[in-house]
Write a structure and sequence with these properties.
Distance between the termini: 25 Å
Radius of gyration: 19 Å
Keywords: DNA-binding, Transcription, Transcription regulation
Number of helices: 12
Number of strands: 0
Protein name: TetR/AcrR family transcriptional regulator
CATH class of the largest domain: Mainly Alpha
Organism: Streptomyces siderophoricus
Pfam family, one: TetR_N
CATH architecture of the largest domain: Orthogonal Bundle
Structural class: mainly alpha
Strand content: under 5%
Shape: elongated
Order of helices and strands: HHHHHHHHHHHH
InterPro entries: ArpA-like, DNA-bd_HTH_TetR-type_CS, Homeodomain-like_sf, HTH-type_TetR-like_transc_reg, HTH_TetR, Tet_transcr_reg_TetR-rel_C_sf
């Protein structure tokens, strides 16, 4: 068991180091040597888990779609909101998530590995379909179109916030995006009950930690 846990930790260290290097230098300029140095591992330890930079990039992208921190809610539309806020909260703090976006917008990496945007769209569509079944969506709302457009809008907001000087933090920006988006999606009675606070994701994480400790 200890050996297995050590292997899991080593694999994660490889991915985090690769993500940091991809974030800093881009995919093409990143090197295995730089990743090994960042991970503070031997070449053999890295190659035991990943045989190439390409495999490392695929491993980073495999970590991109995550619902960590999500808690079941009375409203499915709140869960859709929460996933957006949780990702905004986590992305600046987790190199694996930020690197997955860096790889997705890098034309070379995208041509080699594709992106995980289709997976995010499917995840959003499924939640929105459930929300529609519960009567939470306005009649004209198409879950597939809405999920696709929101993934595009979310990604655009993140890229701009990262690039412009003095931009608000990402959680605040995504909170504002939701406030603009939701009146065209949610029925009024549901809209009034949705929490889009930029601090909601942090509260969800803290509540999750407290539950785990107890």
């Amino acid at each position: 068991m200890a050996k297995q846990e050590r292997a899991i930790r080593t694999r994660k260290a490889c991915l985090v180091a690769a993500a940091e290097i991809f974030n800093e230098y881009g995919y093409e300029a990143a090197t295995i040597a730089a990743i090994i140095e960042r991970a503070k591992l031997t070449r053999g330890a890295l190659y035991f888990h990943f045989t190439s930079k390409e495999e490392l990039a695929r491993g980073v992208l495999d970590e991109a779609v995550t619902t960590e921190g999500l808690v079941p809610q009375a409203l499915k539309l709140q869960e859709w909101v929460d996933i957006s806020l949780l990702l905004a909260h986590r992305l600046p703090r987790e190199p694996l998530l930020s690197a997955s976006i860096r790889l997705s917008v890098d034309s070379k990496a995208r041509s080699l590995f594709g992106t995980r945007w289709p997976d995010w769209i499917v995840l959003g569509r499924e939640l929105l379909n459930e929300a529609r079944g519960r009567g939470e969506l306005l009649p004209h709302v198409d879950p597939t179109d809405t999920a696709r457009l929101f993934v595009g809008a979310w990604t655009g907001v993140q890229l701009v916030a990262e690039a412009v000087p003095h931009a608000p933090d990402l959680s605040t920006e995504i909170s504002r995006l939701l406030e603009l988006f939701l009146p065209n999606v949610a029925v009024p009675g549901v809209l009034a009950r949705l929490d889009t606070s930029p601090f909601r994701a942090e509260r969800l994480f803290e509540a999750g930690k407290a539950t785990a400790v107890s």
